[in-house]
C-alpha cells in the first residue's frame, strides 16, 4: 500500500505548516544536482563551509533550515529560530493569482527577500559562521521556491488547510504535504524500489539531457508558481477546484498529471542553485578583501586565558627560583659560619 511510511509525517507537517518544501528527499536531490555542476573554486569553497564530518556533502545540510524549527530536532534552540519561519514561503491573497511585493513581501520578509538577502551575505560576509548560516538557508530556500505551493494562498496556508485522501489511503493528508512529499514518495515506491540513489540518478540524467538555460529571475519563477496553482494544482481529477471547505479524493490521475512538474522543478532547482553557487564563488574570488579574517570571541578569550596562565607560570617559576636561591644562600652562609 502506497504512502504508509510517510503518513505520520503528515502530522508533523500539520503542526509545522508551510515550511517543509520537497521534504528531505527533494531538498537533498536539489543540492546534489547543484554540487554536480560546481567548477573552478566553487567545490573547495563549498567544502570549507560544510561540516567536516560530511566530507564536503552539502546535501546533508539541505534540510537544516527546517530542522532548526522543530522541537524534536532542536529541543534546546528551536524557539530561537522561529523568526525564520516566514522566510520559507510567500503568501498572496486567496485566488488573486497576482503577486505584489509591497503587499506580499513587506521588508523582504518572504522567501524571495530571503534568497536575495542570503545570496548577498554569502558574497559580502567574512565571518565564517555567518557564511555557513547564509549558505544553509540559501540552498534550502532555493529548493523551497521550486515547490509551487511555497507561493501560496494566504487563507489556506499554501494548501495546508486543503485536506483529503491520496492513493486510496484512509488517513488524511493535505495538498501542501502532497506536493512536498507524497508525489515523490509514490514515484519512489512505484518505479525505484524506494531507492533514493536510483531516483537521484534518474533526475540527474533528466538534467544533463536538457539544454535549457536557467536564469536567476526569481520573480519570474514566482509568477510560474502562481500560474501553476491557479491553473492546475488546485484542480482535482474531475477538474473541480479544491478548497479548505471540502475534502479531496485524489489518486492515479492526479499523480500522473503532476509528477512530471515535480521532477522538472527538481531539475530546475538543482540547475539554478548550481549556477548561482558557481557565480558567487567566482565573485568572492575576484573581490578584494578589505577585512582581515577575524577571530571569534571564544578564540580570543581562550588566547587571553592561555596568555594569563603563561604569565602566571613564569611569575610563579621566578618566585620559586628566587626562593630556592635564597634558601641555598642561607644554607651556604650557615655552612661557612660553622667552619669558622
Automatic annotation (TrEMBL):
Record's keyword terms, sorted: Disulfide bond, Endonuclease, Glycoprotein, Hydrolase, Membrane, Metal-binding, Nuclease, Signal, Transmembrane, Transmembrane helix
Signal peptide annotation: 1-21
Keyword Transmembrane helix: yes
Superkingdom, taxonomy of origin: Eukaryota
Keyword Transcription regulation belongs to the record: no
TM segment ranges: 300-322
Coiled coil: none
GO molecular function: endonuclease activity; hydrolase activity, acting on ester bonds; metal ion binding; nucleic acid binding
One Pfam family of this chain: S1-P1_nuclease
Annotated InterPro entries: PLipase_C/P1_nuclease_dom_sf, S1/P1nuclease
Biological process (GO), any one: DNA catabolic process
Family membership: Belongs to the nuclease type I family.
Record protein name field: Aspergillus nuclease S(1)
Amino acid at each position: 500500500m502506497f504512502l504508509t511510511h510517510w503518513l505520520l509525517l503528515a502530522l508533523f507537517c500539520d503542526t509545522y505548516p508551510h515550511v517543509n518544501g520537497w521534504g528531505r528527499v527533494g531538498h537533498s536531490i536539489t543540492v546534489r544536482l547543484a554540487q554536480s555542476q560546481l567548477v573552478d573554486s566553487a567545490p573547495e569553497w563549498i567544502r570549507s563551509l560544510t561540516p567536516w564530518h560530511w566530507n564536503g556533502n552539502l546535501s546533508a545540510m539541505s534540510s537544516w533550515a527546517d530542522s532548526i524549527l522543530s522541537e524534536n530536532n532542536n529541543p534546546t534552540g528551536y524557539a530561537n529560530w522561529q523568526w525564520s519561519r516566514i522566510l520559507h514561503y510567500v503568501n498572496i491573497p486567496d485566488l488573486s493569482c497576482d503577486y505584489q511585493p509591497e503587499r506580499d513581501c513587506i521588508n523582504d520578509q518572504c522567501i524571495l527577500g530571503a534568497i536575495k538577502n542570503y545570496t548577498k551575505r554569502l558574497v559580502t560576509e567574512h565571518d565564517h559562521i555567518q557564511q555557513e548560516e547564509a549558505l544553509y538557508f540559501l540552498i534550502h530556500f532555493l529548493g523551497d521556491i521550486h515547490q509551487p505551493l511555497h507561493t501560496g494562498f494566504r487563507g489556506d496556508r499554501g494548501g495546508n488547510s486543503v485536506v483529503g485522501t491520496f492513493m486510496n489511503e484512509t488517513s488524511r493528508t493535505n495538498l501542501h504535504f502532497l506536493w512536498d512529499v507524497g508525489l515523490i514518495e509514490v514515484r519512489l515506491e512505484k518505479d525505484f524500489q524506494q531507492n533514493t540513489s536510483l531516483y537521484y540518478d534518474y533526475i540527474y540524467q533528466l538534467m544533463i539531457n536538457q539544454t535549457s538555460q536557467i536564469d536567476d529571475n526569481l520573480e519570474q519563477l514566482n509568477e510560474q508558481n502562481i500560474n501553476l496553482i491557479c491553473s492546475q494544482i488546485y484542480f482535482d481529477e474531475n477538474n473541480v477546484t479544491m478548497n479548505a471547505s471540502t475534502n479531496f479524493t485524489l489518486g492515479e490521475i492526479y499523480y500522473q498529471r503532476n509528477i512530471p512538474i515535480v521532477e522538472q522543478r527538481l531539475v530546475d532547482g538543482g540547475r539554478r542553485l548550481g549556477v548561482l553557487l558557481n557565480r558567487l564563488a567566482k565573485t568572492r574570488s575576484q573581490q578584494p578583501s578589505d577585512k582581515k579574517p577575524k577571530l571569534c570571541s571564544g578564540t580570543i578569550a581562550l588566547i587571553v586565558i592561555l596568555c594569563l596562565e603563561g604569565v602566571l607560570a613564569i611569575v610563579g617559576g621566578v618566585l620559586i627560583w628566587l626562593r630556592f636561591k635564597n634558601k641555598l644562600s642561607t644554607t651556604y652562609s650557615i655552612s661557612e659560619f660553622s667552619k669558622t
